Amino acid sequence: MSSSVIVFLVLSMLLSTGACVNFTDVFKSSWAPDHIAVVGDQVTLTLDNTSGCGFESKIKYLFGKASAQIKLVEGDSAGTVIAFYMSSEGANHDELDFEFLGNVSGEPYLVHTNVYVNGTGDREQRHSLWFDPTADFHTYSFFWNHRTIIFSVDEIPIRVFTNKEEKGVPYPKNQGMGIYGSLWNADDWATQGGRVKTNWSHSPFVTTFRSFEIDACDLSGEDIAAAGAKCGKMAQFLWDKPAMKGVEKSKKHQFKMVQSKYLVYDYCKDTARFTQMPKECLY
Ligand SMILES: *[C@@H]1O[C@H](CO)[C@@H](O)[C@H](O)[C@H]1NC(C)=O
Ligand SMILES: *[C@@H]1O[C@H](CO)[C@@H](O)[C@H](O)[C@H]1NC(C)=O
Ligand SMILES: *[C@@H]1O[C@H](CO)[C@@H](O)[C@H](O)[C@H]1NC(C)=O
Ligand SMILES: *[C@@H]1O[C@H](CO)[C@@H](O)[C@H](O)[C@H]1NC(C)=O
Ligand SMILES: *[C@@H]1O[C@H](CO)[C@@H](O)[C@H](O)[C@H]1NC(C)=O
């Protein structure tokens, strides 16, 4: 066996530790199924002047990890938004958002993240990326347990939301969340503050998701309360082990590097917006 084959085998073993889920088993379309195409484990979302589209998981989850590889809209994506998010839905929803804000050809995408607890968001951050997200697939993921929520890009943490309930900051932990993906027109706000509109002569706009991995506590079954009690028990799941209380030591320097080089907006620094800074920003 040549050394390159051995390297390949070792790499594929490392890469295949999490099991990919079968898209059609786990997800269904939430709107405009005619704009969604599933081929193997790839799902392609299309936005044109008639509609965008979206998909959602069939069940909700309470704590765990979820990721997808996504290739964003190529070329002129101004006015379009691709979302990959978790939500409990409803007026008092908890939600974790990745929103990818398109741009005119050659200008960079922005990654907008938000955390909603019990219906209240207003916790936006925006990051630029250290690669062209339209050229290839990259992995975007959520990690969620009782203590912390981590948003990662290619396994590099870009945002951490820590449980500060003891300081009176609400934390999402009482509601299961589904996993969603969508592509839609948001040219009233998305690109350069809404100044650049979607140029429909460049439609259809297309994005592809693939290789979904979900390692989370599922809230399916007849007895949701019992499922919730099971998922809520700490320390029985991998994601709730004491070691998983924040960013792994080996990744702390990467997180700091992203914060210093790629964070372009942080609500916690926006003193013009808040007369009283949100509590989680103070501690
Ligand atoms: C996913 O599961 C469906 C049946 O639920 C099956 O028809 C399809 O071939 C599976 N797809 C892949 C990529 O394995
Ligand atoms: C939408 O796009 C199609 C094809 O590009 C075009 O024929 C049609 O006129 C457009 N409709 C609207 C409402 O702009
Ligand atoms: C969520 O918000 C509602 C008001 O919209 C409030 O009545 C309820 O107590 C809140 N729940 C929690 C867990 O804070
Ligand atoms: C789009 O490109 C402009 C110019 O480079 C930049 O200021 C902006 O942050 C980019 N992203 C969005 C979503 O507007
Ligand atoms: C939209 O794209 C077309 C084709 O590239 C171009 O001719 C036109 O000027 C663009 N419209 C705007 C408003 O930029």
UniProtKB/TrEMBL annotation:
InterPro entries in UniProt: Beta-glucanase-like (IPR000757), Beta-glucanase/XTH (IPR044791), ConA-like_dom_sf (IPR013320), GH16_AS (IPR008263), XET_C (IPR010713), XTH (IPR016455)
Keyword entries, A-Z: Apoplast, Cell wall, Cell wall biogenesis/degradation, Disulfide bond, Glycoprotein, Glycosidase, Hydrolase, Secreted, Signal, Transferase
The keyword Signal appears for this protein: yes
First-level EC class: transferase
Pfam family, any one: XET_C
Classification via Gene3D superfamilies: 2.60.120.200
GO cellular component term of the entry, any: apoplast
Location of the GH16 domain: 14-209
Record's function text: Catalyzes xyloglucan endohydrolysis (XEH) and/or endotransglycosylation (XET). Cleaves and religates xyloglucan polymers, an essential constituent of the primary cell wall, and thereby participates in cell wall construction of growing tissues.
Protein name in the entry: Xyloglucan endotransglucosylase/hydrolase
Organism of origin: Capsicum annuum (Capsicum pepper)
Lineage: Eukaryota, Viridiplantae, Streptophyta, Embryophyta, Tracheophyta
